[in-house]
Amino acid sequence: MVLLVFILLFLLIDAYVFQAVLTVSKNWSPLWKQLARYGYWVPTALCIIALLWWTFGDPYKARDSFRVYILAGTAIFYLSKVFAVLVLFIDDLQRGVRWLVKYFSKSASNLPGEPITRSEFLSKAALVASAVPMGLSVYGIVSGAHDYRVKRVSLKLPNLPKSFDGIKIGQVSDIHSGSFWNKTAVKGGVEMLLNEKPDLIFFTGDLVNNQAKEVKDYIPVFEKLRAPLGVFSVTGNHDYGDYHPWPDAESKRKNFKDLVESHKLLGFDLLMNEHRMIEQNGDKIAIIGIENWGAGRFSKYGKLEQAYAGTDEAAAKVLLSHDPTSWDAIVRPKHKDIDLTLSGHTHGFQFGVEIANIKWSPSQYAYKQWAGLYQENNQYLYVNRGFGYLGYPGRIGMPPELTIIELKRA
Questions:
Q1: Which of 222, 232, 235, 298 has a CA that sits 20 to 30 A from residue 292's CA?
Q2: What domains are there in the chain, each with its CATH number?
Q3: Which stretches of 334-378 are assigned E, i.e. beta strand?
Q4: Which tens digit of pLDDT belongs to each residue from 3-38?
Q5: Is the distance from CB of 163 to CB of 282 less than 8 angstroms?
Q6: If you average pLDDT over every residue of the chain, what do you get?
Q7: How far is Cα 202 from Cα 405, in angstroms, rounded to an integer?
Q8: Cβ of 348: how many Cβ atoms within 10 Å?
Q9: Cα–Cα distance measured from residue 384 to residue 323, given in angstroms and rounded to the nearest whole number
């Protein structure tokens, strides 16, 4: 039933927009006219075939990235056409008004233009309105998906010991290895971070989309992430396989076990509701890491009290927590001595505008803290915009981020 609804919806949208194609192409040469009119329906047929495959086949046997392309491609194709539908509706509205005026008034014969025929101008405008978001989406995939940017932040912490003054932290988040389609570009992003020569590297969750096997081909890439004081990581909401249809509970447990093993193969010190002490010249800072904890519908595997216990001797404390909603919910209310929390999760919705003092993204309507640095008294939260992508295999105005944070004594 759901499949039938989607197919009918797709056909209705296409039939409506096709009227604009007919109008615009009416004076073209016979060859180009036929190419335009028959070619218009080819993507529609492909989308319907994809829906049939998704419904009656076994899409989870295919590569995760392939499923992403199918879903994203179909969504982009039809969301773009919605813009054309809106313009065509304006055209039909004015045509309807003209028809009503003519029907009820003899003076309507004096109205300019054809009363019933579709406007060629608005038909062209509709196709342009559809092409613009389609073009932006393609640009976001081809150019934006791997346009890595280094974000630099300098923080002054009152509790930072002298031995750690000037320490440089590199943060990577939301790799989502199952979505990658350009390994060469991914290698370039890793090299960009290494060129910054961070003293510590933190990975704040979502190594995969659903299955641990997604990262297999990228272990040789990300295992190159090394830092003098270590590489530490935590899990994100996607790492547990909660969004995948497993045949049984044991399969899901094994997948997570394999995910944990992947962190070891990468050389990451995975913090599962625990902490590590970093010591220099007798001074200590605590690196605390919790499993995913998110407000609302997101999983709450994190146990902050367990991870925090035993950190009293550390002069400064840094928390790795994938979901930034944990900062207001469980970090600040009880632990005023956690100086810095590092998160990811939001991706900045992979879409937005950040120019000069303008900072906007749909993400801000879902998350109070969604990208960049936040401060409450002497506590800081930094939300990384993500290294990879999920769903839509690209980014528009919200490039993938490599964060470099320098800690200074206040």
A1: 222
A2: 2-143 (no CATH), 149-409 (3.60.21.10)
A3: 340-343, 353-355, 358-360, 372-376
A4: 788 888 888 888 888 888 888 888 889 898 889 888
A5: yes
A6: 90
A7: 11
A8: 27
A9: 10
